[in-house]
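Reproducibility note. Readers wishing to regenerate the assembly model reported in the main text can use the exact inputs given here. Chain order matters: entities are listed in the order in which they were concatenated for prediction.
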Amino acid sequence: MNKEYEVVIIGGGPAGLSAGLYTSRARLSSLLIERGLVGGQIVNAELVENYPGFPEGISGLELTQLMHQQATKYGLETLLAETTGIELKEGQKVVKTTEANFIAKAVIIAGGSERAKLGIPGEKEFTGKGVSYCATCDAAFFKGEPIAVVGGGDAAITEARHLTRFASKVIVIHRRHQLRTSRILQEKAFAEPKIEFLWNTIVEEIKGEEVVQQLSLRNVITGEKFTLDVAGIFMSIGFKPNTAYLKGVLPLDAAGYITTNEKMGTEIPGIFAAGDIRYNSAQQAVTAAGDGVTAAIYAEIFIR
Amino acid sequence: MNKEYEVVIIGGGPAGLSAGLYTSRARLSSLLIERGLVGGQIVNAELVENYPGFPEGISGLELTQLMHQQATKYGLETLLAETTGIELKEGQKVVKTTEANFIAKAVIIAGGSERAKLGIPGEKEFTGKGVSYCATCDAAFFKGEPIAVVGGGDAAITEARHLTRFASKVIVIHRRHQLRTSRILQEKAFAEPKIEFLWNTIVEEIKGEEVVQQLSLRNVITGEKFTLDVAGIFMSIGFKPNTAYLKGVLPLDAAGYITTNEKMGTEIPGIFAAGDIRYNSAQQAVTAAGDGVTAAIYAEIFIR
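Running the prediction on these inputs yields the following structure tokens for the assembly.
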């Protein structure tokens, strides 16, 4: 027999944990399903300086452990398993996982998104040591230093412009010969004296001792190889929302994101989405937490 | 001469403080204007149990002091003054206060809303000691005890139903003879065995020793006076957003709230709104904080 919960939450990052805190405090029987580490991708952040309430900063691991402890205190149950599908059956929602299936009155999807990686030598080793996937989070660590941004879309250029307030120089490395971004953003980027461009260029390796010091680059047209000394490298080459198992269940946009209304509701009554998995999410821990709480409040209204 | 800032934030609760944290970290010169105590209305909460990251709970005062300290660390300036107006002049935004006027490139309005009060004896004295204005926040303090809810609208009935999970009995006290709420919500409330109604009734006084113990009531039709023993009383008689000075500047709804899009933008480019002052806000500290961060991120994009 499938076990029943009033709310099943998929994903154990700040969005899911905050949703679970509120649904549990509302005395709705609640199960959170996480496939990896409770905490989500923020557990990789050594120092989170921008979650409001922690002036000295806090590690992503500790922050999400506190959130988990808090939600668990009010009754949230946690299961480590991979969610493989959601089935709608006679008004019921069945959440299928690698461990068991669960029947829920409401489902909150908070599985986050993964930052696309280059997959080059040095990238993994130096993550958090000069390799970053979030300019808003980590820009302040690079005051007065030269840094690189990899990518050529809106996000990359927005991040490059953000970084000019901190870095001595921002070198945008793009594998094509032009940007994929709006004209106005391009013009602003070209007018910015601190931003330089390396066109038709890819990063082949990230090098350093303890922290990032140098990039090995290659021009894809001429084949020329060269190096660039930087203190940091920001990857801005896209995201992949964790929604593969939702195809055919919920409408997803071309990139795989879920569109919600302001109540975090999806097109299916009783299924909510929160955090980075949503189209147009601000992708910050506290906005994800806020999303989760909003979803929880409307899930309660839906159920009662 | 008017002093210039890149961002002026009006209101020093969780929304404004979180916005200021992000704009300051983005190295935008930022001024936060607060008319009363930095922290906003949550400073009255003795124990906030539902802000994600604090498993043991934290007082509203301490939480917002931490947020203020954090934002100040990155350069946020704070001014204690009352905002009296916003003027749009030749593409500039002039924020007028009782202390001075300021020119801003972007303005984030985060002035919150005030919970309507009954204004009866005992209400102020017992606030936080049995008198509450937020069922989501305080319901868990009343496990197994009889409690009253004052009001007859959607919010009152939603809160009454939420409270049935905790209280032994929920008595809804309404000054009219019927609810002002949707039919479906009414039917659900009437079907709930734990909810009782006192129609045509007003609360005249709240009594107790240290904490709330008894209400003095009066039937407005018969004039009959009587008492009711309760452990708590939840006021759900509406909110008043702090937007009086914005009439003629921004479109406000009938109740005075500001409507925003998902980027927290208002109808005027460069003016954003965040937190409880928004139409349809979830009115929780962490959703307000999330709103503030979203507004800050889009204010930066607007400015750059």
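We highlight two features of this model. The longest strand of chain A covers residues 101-109. The CA atoms of residues 63 and 205 of chain A lie 32 Å apart.
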